[in-house]
Amino acid sequence: MKLDQFLKWKNLVSSGGEAKIFIKSGSVKVNGVIETRRGRQLNKGDKVIFLKNELIFE
């Protein structure tokens, strides 16, 4: 699953466009590293941090 789809799936953003804005602004970390690619493929066990929410991709 792509990072922007994951944020939408978890209801952290209301649209793909909103996800894109947050990701491009550097508001999302994957495994502790700022991620600016909204198409980044998540792997099982990846930790996504967004606005004080910590989620594990399973």
Automatic annotation (TrEMBL):
Pfam families: S4_2. GO terms for molecular function: RNA binding. InterPro entries: S4_RNA-bd (IPR002942), S4_RNA-bd_sf (IPR036986). The keyword Phosphoprotein does not apply. It comes from the Bacteria. Keywords: RNA-binding. This is S4 domain-containing protein. The lineage of its organism: Bacteria, Bacillati, Cyanobacteriota, Cyanophyceae, Synechococcales.
